[in-house]
Amino acid sequence: MNTVKWTFRSVLPLLAVSVLWAACSSPAPGPPPPSIDPVARVDPLEIPFASPVEFPESWRFTAGAEPAAGRRGMVVSTDSLASAAGLEILKAGGNAVDAAIAVQFALAVVHPVAGNIGGGGFMVARLADDTRIALDFREEAPGAASKDMYLDDAGDVTDASWVGHLAAGVPGSVAGMEAAHERYGTLPWDRLLAPAIRLARDGFVVESRHHDDLSWGRESLSRLPATAAVFLPGGKAPPKGSTFRQPDLARTLETISAQGAQGFYDGWVADSIAAEMKRGGGLITKQDLAAYRAVWREPIEIDYRGWTVISMPPPSSGGVTMGQILNIVESSELGSLGWHSPEAIHLAVEGMRRAYADRNFYLGDPDYVEMPIDRLLSQSYADSLAETIDPDHASRSEEFNRVPLESTQTTHFSIIDEAGNAVAVTTTLNGGFGSYVVVRGAGFLLNNEMDDFTSKPGVPNAYGLVQGEANAISPGKRMLSAMTPTVVINPAGRTELITGTPGGSTIITSIFQIVSNHIDFGLPVCTSVDAPRFHHQNLPDVIRYEVGGLDPGTVGTLREMGHELSERDGISGDVESIWIAPDGTRYGAADRRRDGSALGY
Ligand code: DON
To answer: For the chain, which has fewer Cβ within 10 Å, the N-terminal or C-terminal residue?
Structure first.
């Protein structure tokens, strides 16, 4: 354990907090944050979230922002209305699983770019009694799907895996929420849907983020009349300050509220999905819908420097691949290299390169492919890969490749309740607004998750992932994901961090950095979330970093080491984290990249 981390956590702010809502508010202007030299550090009691590191001057945020705080519970999501729905459920006596269900449904209403009932996702949780769970509600390929369905006559990949009816996998979110509720919910199901139904039926006041998302998607949304009718009333994105109502979606949610998942996978909603598929040449049938089940899986557990990192197993690659990166860097004293030093970035990138090469070759749906997970996650294998890292020079990706761009069109939320149940959920339609197809009369968007499969081995998908046969399309199979909902337990056995993010192929490396920022560098929760991020996914062989996120000197040194670097457009992820302090205070950090919402009480 390094000194910076120990001293940061060793003293606790005894803040008198009741309800605070804010997401990483900027620190008051004042003296610059202390340097990483422990002697120069200020007393954390006086500035509890002062950062032990500084961000580059070119970076958009300053280090040391203050998180939201709550004594009893905390909900962190990308949208304040969704976070409020979760908080309402916690205050009504629901547990974190109940609140997660309410947030998932609320996001389907207020965050249509990614929140969904027509998509899928993963839930990872550590309950107060130490039960560790992983719930797979990933979409699956329709029964009529086939390996080459996205190849044209010339054998080239078409865009049908991305836009329109053929791009949609059988949705998993409603089954997932019901499965979670059946096992761990405490409040009645209809109580959990009530906030979402209210938001859909009565509408909500459009804020900048809602307007901006819909303006961003306008061109594609306007191509399908049923989609445009819902999201572009009068042909344009609803203006800021207007009230946006979704009566069709309200009716669908009311049916789910009254009938459970059956109200989605059978009955008039299923009829509407099947009819929509027929109209647009899609494949999902009523049989596919009736056959869909959410699956309970064993979470991936990684020991990292005495901490336990719990994350999602396949069909997400998140837990295995992040685990491999952590295991590879564990043999070095990453924490003593200095946060974002060229040496630290080099080590992390070399770990990422090796782990993604394995991901792209080996991983797929565990119900369809054999995977050497134990070996991939063994420390001896990680050590053998670590031995191939030259501390001074970049490796070449071709040496490792056996066969991953991003944005924020997935969404993550983190929740903890008073009892200590900790829940992390990442959910998605894949691309922003998924396939852009709205089920006529039912008012919700269908995913375009089929693009996460390998359409053709060796040809990159939308996230630049060059994947192999293990992730080939097959009827009923679930497409490989990168989603990495994660709970981190400290060496004393206490849940300390709940986290996750969108970002396509960058999800895994972002969450690796959040975990490492916490364990190796002792960064306070907001600083860790606000910090600039970098990414390497083996192919293409380039370190991509956020604009202004690395000092020119660091970039120069990394280039001298043989790395190729490029500044990426846009933002890398939308992390929603909760840090639970030793005195039990819940600190919420919503990513300022998207102005998310942390609500505690
Ligand atoms: O499951 C996956 O890995 C992708 N469908 C996630 C897509 C995503 O994160 C898009 N937006 N940021």
So the answer is: N
CA distances from 586 to 75, 95, 208, 601 (A): 10, 15, 28, 9
Count of beta carbons in the 10 Å neighbourhood of residue 594: 21
Q: Is 483 in the pocket of ligand 1 (CB under 6 A)?
A: yes
State the Cα angle at 232 between 229 and 236, rounded to 5°. 140
Q: How far apart are CA 412 and CA 425, in angstroms?
A: 6
Q: Quote the CA–CA distance of 362 and 321 in Å, as a whole number.
A: 11
| Side-chain half-sphere exposure of 210, counting CA atoms within 13 A | 27
State in Å: Cα 370 to ligand 1 middle.
23
What's the CA-to-centroid distance between 574 and ligand 1, angstroms?
12
pTM (2 d.p.): 0.91
Residue-wise burial string across 467-481, b where 16 or more C-beta atoms lie within 10 A, e elsewhere: bbebbbbbebbbbbb
Q: Is-contact 592 429, C-beta < 8 A?
A: no
Sign of the dihedral through C-alpha 143, 252, 450, 373: negative
Residue-wise DSSP of 507-532: HHHHHHHHHHHHHTT---HHHHHHS-
| Closest to 109 in 3D by CA, of 201, 224, 243 | 201
User: Lowest mean pLDDT: which of 2-6, 279-283, 398-402?
Assistant: 2-6
Q: What confidence tens digit (pLDDT) does each residue in 26-78 have? A: 544 444 433 333 333 334 444 578 999 999 999 999 999 999 999 999 999 99
**CB within 8 A of 483, min separation 6: which ones?**
121, 122, 312, 316, 318, 410, 412, 426, 428, 500, 507
- pLDDT for 571 equals 86
57-71, 90-104, 402-416, 445-459: which range is least confident on average?
A: 402-416
Q: For position 16, what pLDDT does the model report?
A: 29
Higher pLDDT, 81 or 6: 81
343-371 pLDDT tens trace:
999 999 999 999 999 999 999 999 999 99
Q: Residue 140 C-alpha to ligand 1 middle, in angstroms?
A: 15
317 touches ligand 1 (CB under 6 Å) = no
Q: Tell me what the pLDDT averaged over the chain comes to.
A: 91
